[in-house]
């Protein structure tokens, strides 16, 4: 449990998925300030309908591949629960390859 006046901040990536949404619910119940990040490619808005509107809950639709978004969401955060995933192995490989190719073309290693 956290201090109600100064709640511990947590981000749940993939928080609109089955596991992530239950984790987010529980963290809110325990007093955490929770931000859910999900691109809704496999997650569902219905999964996070319960905490929506709670003062310690925020939903952000976006991608874990967006470095600027991650940087802004992680500021001042104590915990990051990584639940984001691509459930299709072939699609996962394709996205990883595109991400690596983009990083390489931007001069990143």
Give a description of the structure:
It is a single chain. With 109 residues, this protein is an alpha/beta fold. It has a single domain (9-105), classed as 3-Layer(aba) Sandwich (Rossmann fold), CATH 3.40.50. The protein is 34% helix and 18% strand. The chain is built from 3 helices and 4 strands; from the N terminus they run βαββαβα. The chain has helices at 18-29, 67-74, 89-105, and strands spanning 9-13, 33-38, 57-61, 79-82. The chain has a 4-stranded parallel β-sheet, with helices on one face. The relative contact order is 0.20. The model has no long low-confidence stretch (mean pLDDT 87).
Query: What is the straight-line distance between the termini?
Result: 40 Å
Which strand order do you get reading across the main beta sheet? 3-2-1-4
Order of helices and strands: EHEEHEH
Rg from C-alpha positions?
15 Å
* Helix-strand category: alpha/beta
CATH superfamily: NAD(P)-binding Rossmann-like Domain
Average pLDDT over all residues: 87
User: What is the CATH T-level topology?
Assistant: Rossmann fold
Q: What's the quick description here?
A:
With 109 residues, this protein is an alpha/beta fold.
Q: What keyword list fits this structure?
A:
3 helices, 34% helix, four-stranded parallel beta sheet, globular, 109 residues, Rossmann fold
């Amino acid at each position: 449990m956290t201090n109600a006046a100064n709640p511990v901040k947590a981000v749940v990536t993939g928080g609109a998925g089955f596991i992530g949404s239950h984790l987010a619910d529980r963290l809110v119940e325990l007093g955490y300030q929770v931000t859910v990040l999900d691109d809704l490619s496999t997650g569902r808005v219905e999964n996070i309908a319960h905490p929506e509107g709670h003062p310690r809950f925020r939903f952000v639709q976006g991608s874990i591949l967006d470095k600027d978004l991650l940087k802004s969401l992680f500021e001042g955060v104590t915990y990051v629960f990584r639940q984001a995933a691509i459930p299709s192995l072939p699609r996962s490989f394709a996205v990883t390859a595109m991400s690596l190719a983009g990083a390489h073309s931007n001069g990143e290693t």
